[in-house]
Amino acid sequence: MAASRTDAPAALRAESLSKAYGDRRALESVSFSAAPGELVAIIGPNGAGKTTLLQILAGALAPTSGSVSLDRRDVGWVPQQPAVYSKLSVRENLRLFARLERVADVDATVERMLDQTGLTDRAGDAVGTLSGGNQQRVNVAVGLLGDPAVLLLDEPSSSLDPRQRERLWAFVSTLAREGGTTVVYSTHNVAEAERYADRLLVLADGELLFTGTPAELEQATGEHDAIDFEGAFVRFLRSRGH
Amino acid sequence: MRWLLLKDLQILRRSPLLVALLVLYPLVVALLVGAALSSGPSKPKVAFANLVPADEARIDLGGRQLDATSYASELFDKVDPIRVDSREEAIAKVESGEALGALVVPPDVIERLQGSLGLGGGEPPAVEVYYSAENPLKRRYVEATIDATLADANKALSDEIFKEAAGYLNLIVAGGQISLPLVGDVNILGLRRAQSIIDGALAGMPPDDPSVAALRQVSRFARLAAENLDVSKPILASIANPVRVEERALSGSDASLDVFGVEVAVVISLMFVTLLLAAGMLALEREEHAFGRLVRGLVSRTGLLAEKIGLAGLCAWALAAVMLAVLVGFLDLGWSRTPLWLLALAFAAVAFAALGVAIGGLTREVRAASLLAFMLALPIAALALIPSGAVNPTLYDAIRIVSGLFPFKPALDALDAAISGGELATPLLHLAALTLGFGAIARLALRRFA
Fold first, then answer.
1. Are residues A57 and A104 in the same domain?
2. Does B296 sit within 8 Å of A100, measured CB to CB?
3. Are A51 and A18 contained in the same domain?
4. B269, CA 20 to 30 Å: which among A115, A201, B42, B98?
5. Residues B4, B5, B9, CA angle at the centre, nearest 5°?
6. Residues A137 and A163 occupy one common structural domain
7. How close does chain A come to B13, measured CA to CA in Å?
C-alpha cells in the first residue's frame, strides 16, 4: 500500500532544504516527497531539526536555501504547543482562525470540526480550562480548518495519555486513509512511528539519514530479528555516527 | 485584522481584574501626580513662641504707637502656627516632629527694634529659628519658608516706617501740628509757609535795605529745600521697595498650575494604559504560541503590529479623553478646543502604543514586557518634568535629548498646546516620527519573536 502511494504524484515535495542560525546548521539539504494520503513520520534525536523542518514546510520559517512545492494555504499546521487562545472558548478559537483562513462557510466548517474532533460538548468552554488532550484536539482542529491537502503535526501526542493518543491516531489515520490528506508528523515515540507511519524520515544533526518504511529501517540495521524497533533505530543512529 | 481586534477585545473582556488594574492604577497615579502638581505645598506647621510681655509689645515711632503683635499676622500667612508659651516648648514641638520648625520672638526684641528705629544704636532685633535638619531637602524648605515669612514681616514694618517718615517730611515742607512727648502739641511752620512769610517781608522792604540780600538767600533756601524734600518721598518709597518685578514669559505655556496638573495626569494615564496594553497583548501572542500560526500567511507581521497599536491606542485614547473631559469640566476650561485635544491625545496614544509594541517585541514575555514598561515609564515622565535651570546646563541638554527620544514630553507639549493654545504641529510631528521609529524597532524585533 505504501509503495503504491509512493508511486502516486507527490502532494508535498521538499527540495534541498537548508536552514542555518548563524554558524549553526539546523538543517542540511533535506529533500523528500510525500504522496496523497501518506503518513510520514519524522524521527530523530533531540536537536535533529525535526521542528525546523516542519516549520519550513508550514511556511512559518523561511529556509536559508531550498524550496517547498506547496503553497502555505494548502498546508495545515499543528505546532507542538497548542497555538490557541486560552481565554477564548473552543468555538471562538475555531471561528477566529476560520475567518483568518478565509473559509467560505465559517459556521458550517466550525461545527464540522467540532464534530470531527469530538469537541461539540466542550465548544463553549474556555480552552484554558480543558485538559492537555482536549487542548491538543483544538490545536489539531484549527490546523484542519482550511481543509488542507497536507497536515503537519509537530510532536502531536507528547502531552497525551495513552487513551488520548489512541484516539488522536485513530482520527489522524482516518484523515489520511479516508480523506486522502497527507500527514507528516514528528515524534520522539519510535513505536508510534513504527505503528502508524507508512514511511519514516530519520533526521540527525540536520541531516536526512534515512527514508523508507519501518521494515526497511529494521533491515538496514541487519539484526531486525534480534532487537525491537526502538533498539534498531538507536543502533541505526550509532552506525551513522550519531 | 478586524477579527484579531475583536479577539483581543474579547480577551480583555474576559480579564476584568486585569482591565480594572490597567485602568485604576494609572488613574490613581495620575490623579495623585496631578493633585501634587496643582495644589502646591500646604502651610507648614511652625511652633511660635512670642516671649514679649503683652504690655511691652508697642513700638514708639515718632510719637506714634505701633502694635508689634499686629505684624505676627504677616508671619502666619505662610505657616500654620502652633502657639506655645516658651522657647523650650517650641523646641520640643520640633524635636517631636509635630512642627517643621519653631520661631521664637525673644523678650528684648521690641526694645532692640525701638533702639534701631530711634537710631539709638545697639544690636538689631533678632528672632530665633529652630528646625530639625533631618535631611538637606527639609533644611532648604524650612529655611526658604522662614526667610520668606520674615521678609514679609520686615516689609510690613518698613512700610509703616515709610509712612511715618513721609508724614514728617510733609510736616517740614508744608507745616502743621505735631504732638511730642512731654511737650504736647507743637505748631510747625514749614518751609513753604516760611518762604511765603520771608517773601512778604521782602516785598515791604526798600531794595537797598542791607537785610534784603540775606533774606533772599533764606527764601531761596526754603523754596529749594521744599522742592527737594518733596522729591525725596518717592526716593524713600523706592528704598522701601527697591526692586519692582515685571514678569514676561519668553517661551512655553500660559497654562496655570491646575491645567498643567491635569495635562500631566492625563498623559501619565495615557502612557501607562497604552504601554501596558500594547506590550502585553503583543507578548501574549507569543505566550499563547499563536504568533507562529498567525504570521504563516494569516496576518502579516506589520499587520499584527498595526492591530496591537490600534487596539492599545484606541482603548487608551478613549480612557484619556473621558478623563480629560471630566477634568476640563472641573476646571471650566470650555469645550471650543475639544477637537484639538482629541487630536493631540490620538497622536500621543499611537506613539505610546508604538513604544509599547517595541517593548513587547523585544521582551517577548508578558511579565517582562509589563516590568520593562513600568521601568521605562516612570523615569521618562520624571525626566520630562525637570524644568530648565533646575540642573546644570549640560545635564539638562542630556535630559532634553533623552526626553525627546520617548513620547511623554512631546505628548505633554501637544496636549498643552491643544488645551492652552500654542504651536501644535511640532509636537504632533515629533510624535509621528517617534511612532515610525518605535514601529520600525518593533518590526525588527518580530524577526526573532517566534
1. no
2. no
3. yes
4. B42
5. 115
6. no
7. 10
